[in-house]
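hey team, just a heads up i'm posting the complex here instead of the shared drive bc the drive is being weird again. everything in one block, sequence lines first with there labels, then the predicted structure for the whole assembly after. its two chains so it's a bit long, scroll down
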Amino acid sequence: MKGLFKSKPRTPADVVRQTRELLIYVDLHAGSRGADPKREEEKMAELSKNIRDLKCILYGNGEHEPVTEACVQLTQEFFRENTLRLLIMCVPKVNLETRKDSTQVVANLQRQQVNSRILASEYLEANKDLLDTLISGYEDTEVALHYGAMLRECIRHQSIARYVLESDHMKKFFDYIQIPNFDIASDASATFKELLTRHKATVAEFLSKNYDWFFAEFNSRLLSSSNYITKRQAIKLLGDMLLDRSNSAVMMRYVSSKDNLMILMNLLRDSSKNIQIESFHVFKLFAANKNKPAEVVNILVTNRSKLLRFFAGFKTDKEDEQFEADKEQVIKEISAL
Amino acid sequence: MVRGGSMRRPSLALAAVSEPAAPEFTLSADDYRLMEEVGFGANAVVYRAIFLPANRTIAVKCLDLDRINSSADDVRKEAQIMKLIDHPNVIKAYCSFVVDHNLWVIMPFMAEGSCLHLMKVAHPDGLEEPVICSILKETLKALAYLHGQGHIHRDVKAGNILVDSPGVVKLGDFGVSACLFDRGDRQRSRNTFVGTPCWMAPEVLQPGTGYNFKADIWSFGITALELAHGHAPFSKYPPMKVLLMTLQNAPPGLDYDRDRKFSKSFKEMVAMCLVKDQTKRPTAEKLLKHSFFKNTKAPQLTVKSILTDLPPLWDRVKALQQKDAAHLASSEQEALSMSEYQRGVSAWHFDIEDLKAQALLINDDDPTELKEDDDSARINEGTSFESHFGQSMLLNGNNHSERTCTTAVNPGGNGPETSDEFASDLGNADSPRMVDGHIKQGTENDSLSSTSKQGSEGGNRRSEVRQRQRTFSGPVMYSGTRSSSLIERGMQELDHLINKRVTREESMILVVRFHFQLVLLQIVCLPLFGLLEDMWAPWET
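-- predicted structure starts here --
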């Protein structure tokens, strides 16, 4: 008898629709006065369960791998309406476990393809204000890690990364990276790095257009930071950016500046060996530049004996042939000036 | 810029926390007073500390960022996972911030330290079954939670199971945990080589296969044995041998004579975890429903019994450290590393530095060290073909490996001065001339004769060849494998690793090579051990 009344199993689209209804309810009623607390609790629990179900469909569970067809259905229904917006807006209203589940659902959806289209990318392009919300999440400890993780997935889409790069938000990252909460600051730092290294052509264009303010901030706030990890990550990122072939024009501009050289030479003397080594990988570009401007040559010549003495004792902990070869080259260049 | 004091961690209003609500921890080192050292790992020290504004005892893990060469991403992920933990059986981080070049992670203080510690201090031969049962159940709840979140802990062991005074049990240390859901892309499995050898699942050691959260279930089974005996199986062997034994031997279990006192359901539960085929291992969720955990007593009741009359944690830590210092003074440096290894102090990453340190432990000139005391005491019941097989292999294996070990030792010893040259030539995987090389060279090889012999074959290769020959041993063992230089080479390496008469640098290089060429060694393992079977247990094949 029981079997007769058993409800039909829900399809992935059903789960999405129910989730959406519950999100609408929570978005309207959560925390508002006059709401029935018991009813609200029930709805909240139901929402948590539905979001967990979405996660299970997308990722599979311990026993089963995800099913492509189910993922496609889910994705189609999800982006048919404003579910993503609702889900993002409700993050501050749901409990910690549901926040984490929501983050994983949003992250996964960025990769789901439906007929070789990425619906998430198209949706975000039409709803760019959502990125503003995600970025400003870094200012709220409650949601920072969830919004941060979602954001990093969204900027996998080139058009979305371009939007963020061209927005005023880029300036804010210099603050976010230095938030004292390590978990949040390092998250912002990871996003910043992703923005500046993932989409080569877009990054090259951004750096050329925004060279002046960007490197002024980069030098004064990150490379000169008193925070060890900020400094170390910044110098590593600088090396990654400048050594990338697509950024060669930016690199030439950077290594032709006396001020940049001075900052790098100071970093070479940092008390941390790791920072010294990373700095060397940028410093070597100044020395290897075939068209060194006079001001750069002047500094190198003035400090020639000191530099040579420094490099004589400059070694990596582990043997590194490439490093030794680079060092020889730099010594040769400086000696020949 | 936001100042340290103003960025406070909001209390988790929505989370049901069983402990007293955490105060709002600040992000300024001045607000914390570090007290005694209560734990240490490869790159971190854990202190008991007081959070002054609330006069609350907490633990501070100080991670030296300047000593961490892996990407900052790993540190970030660890900090974030710990921050977002909300489960009564998992250690969470209240907050974390940078002080000089250290990362300070503020965590709850677990006043009784780890289970490993407790055993070292008062229960060297393991714990009673009811106590083990409650500890394991709490740990399993933690694993079920972590796995549900997509995290693999990757370092489950008694040393990471922490106990607080009222008998609260929590799983800690996420130094190596990885997220399967990471970045939205469900990676089917991870391919990194991380963990502590004794607790590592076979698939973690196997290249290419990848592994998932079932690796934690294996480690959980090993941890059960650890709690029952006071140490993990194989813990007396050098790491490289452990790796091979895990791959080759039958899974360990509760089948020694002295394990008679344990219940059938306990033995069965352990056996379910320690199945080599990861797909046959139960999930943490399923395991919680096993009959062994049916009538588990609350940890507050059972764990209390092992906590009576103990000095405070920091004194215990100090005593253990002093014991090590005495150990160091009385024997060689390797002894300390060995004891550290046995105690289960693991590094977080199985990286070069770590391997280098562990390679130092390779030291078993003393045959008694090789002998796992319990192996000979295994009950000779042979309940299944597999266990019978494993047992005879093990018994024979030990005796023989000792013998081969002694014959394999190069009487001349290996001069460390050659290791650099050795390092310079890592690329010649299967140059055929080596075949002749080893076969002609016997155990009595010395570097001089081999050098002169190979001199004509090209100077640049000479040193490598010389090194190879010197590490070559036991001609009998290799007689059947002439056919393939690849196998020869791998066997040499294995032999080298197993027989351990190597200098520090050499073993590091070998180990590094081992790391990168696991595939090669895989290919090699099978014929080698097939051969050993021939020699030692012909009736099995």
